[in-house]
Amino acid sequence: MNLKTLSSEIGISKWELDTPALLVDLDLMEGNIDRMAGYMKKAGVDWRPHTKGIKVPAIAHKAVAAGAIGVTCAKLGEAEVMAAAGIGDILIANQIVGAAKIARLVSLCRHADVIVCADDAGNVAELGAAAAAKGVTLRVVVEVNVGLDRCGVEPGEAAVALSRQIAGTPGLDYDGVMGWEGHASVIKDPVEKEEACRACVELLVRNAELCAAAGLPVPIVTCAGTATYKISAHVAGVTEIQAGGGIFTDIAYKSWGADDLDCSLTVLATVTSRAAPARAVIDAGRKTMFSSVALPQAKGIEGVGTPVFSAEHGSVDLSGDARRLKVGDKIEFIVGYGDDTVYLHDVLYGVRNDRVEAAWPIEGRGKLR
C-alpha cells in the first residue's frame, strides 16, 4: 500500500473514500477500550486483549495505553508484527510446532517478552532445546482442556506432569495455565451460559491450585474472550483476561452478550447497479465483508435489506426511503463479524466525526504462519 496515497486521504470525509473501504469509528472504539480496561481493573484482573481480529499495532498500543499489560496473538506471525511495532509483552495462545517456527519463536524472545502455550511433552522438549541453544528464556503456560475439546492437555495429573516438565527444562520458564471456554460463549440462555462458563474456568483454577500444591508457582491463569469475560473475570484465581474482539465489537459479539459495547467497525460500499426498483447491487461481496457467523447490517438508511453476496458484489433488497438510492450512492454496513472481515482488507481507516483521522495498514493481515 502506497503510504503517500494513505496520507492524502487523511482529513477527507469518509464519504469521499474509494470503496469498498473498512472503517472504524474512533470515538466508539476508544470508548470500548476504556470500558473494557475499566471493567478489568474493577474486577481485579489484568487485561491482555487478543489481536487476532484487530491486526493493527496502533490499536494494540491504544489498549496498552488504557491499561492492558500486553496482547494475545493467535499466530507467531502476528506476534512478530506486534513485537516489531514495540509491543513488549505477548502471549501466543496456541502451540508453536516444528523447527522453522520454533527457531523464529526463540529469536523473537530477543525482541519481546514472549509466552507460548504447550500441551505436548515432545514439543516442550523441542522448545527448551531451541531456547537453551539460543541463550534465551522462553515463558510457557500449559493449555488445559476445560471442555472445548480442541487443544489442551487433560485436567488433573496430566496438566501437573507437563507443568513439572516445563519447570525442569533448561531454557524454559513455567508461567502457569491457560484455558478457553469458547464453547460456553455462544450459549443463549444467560443462566446456562454463566453456569457453563464458571464450570470451565473453575476447572482451570483447580488445575492451577494442583500445580501450586505440587510446588510450582503459578503466576498466570489466563482465559476468556469478549463473550465470557464478564463471568470469567469474577472467578477467584483468574489473573488475566484475553478478551479483544470487543475493542471493535460487531453484530456477532453483540449477540453473544457485549451489550454495553458499541459496534465501531463498518464497511463503506458503493451502489453500482439499480437495474430493478427494489434491488441495489453494491461493490462489496464475500471478499469484502462476508461472514458465516453473522451478516452485516446497513447503518443509517432504513429499508436496506441484508446483503446476499457473490464473490465481488452484494445484492440488497430495498424498501421505503431506501428505494431513493441511485448508482454512485454509498451505503455503510455494520460488520457482522470482525474476525472474518478485517483480514480481507489492506487498510483500516480511523474515522472521527465522519472525517478520516488515520489510515492504518493492516500489518497483521496474512500472518498465518
Topology, element by element:
Layout: H1 3-9, E1 21-25, H2 26-43, E2 46-47, H3 57-66, E3 71-73, H4 76-84, E4 89-95, H5 99-108, E5 113-118, H6 121-134, E6 138-143, H7 157-167, E7 172-178, H8 190-213, E8 220-223, H9 229-232, E9 240-241, H10 251-255, E10 265-276, E11 279-282, H11 286-289, E12 297-299, E13 308-309, E14 314-317, E15 330-334, E16 347-352, E17 355-361
Parallel strand pairs: 1-16, 2-9, 3-4, 4-5, 5-6, 6-7, 7-8, 8-9
Antiparallel strand pairs: 1-10, 10-11, 10-15, 11-14, 12-15, 13-14, 16-17
Helix pairs in contact: 5-6
Question: What would CATH call the architecture of the largest domain?
Answer: Alpha-Beta Barrel
Low-confidence stretches: none
Counted up, domains total 2
Number of helices: 11
Characterize the largest beta sheet: strand count, sense, and whether it forms a barrel: 9 strands, mixed
Which CATH top level class of the largest domain fits?
A: Alpha Beta
Strand content: 15-25%
How far is it from the N-terminal to the C-terminal residue, by CA? 22 Å
**What's the rounded overall pLDDT mean?**
97
Query: Which percent range fits the helix content?
Result: 25-40%
The strand count comes to 17
CATH superfamily of the largest domain: Alanine racemase
Molecular structure report:
Helices cover 31% and strands 23% of the residues. It is of the alpha/beta class. The chain has two domains: 3-23 and 261-361, D-serine dehydratase-like domain (Lyase, Ornithine Decarboxylase, Chain A, domain 1, Beta Barrel); 70-242, Alanine racemase (TIM Barrel, Alpha-Beta Barrel), CATH 3.20.20.10. Strands 1, 10, 11, 12, 13, 14, 15, 16 and 17 form a nine-stranded mixed β-sheet that branches. An eight-stranded parallel β-sheet has the order 2-9-8-7-6-5-4-3. The longest helix is centred in the middle third of the chain and has 24 residues, at 190-213. It starts with a helix and ends in an 8-residue tail after the last strand. The mean pLDDT is 97.
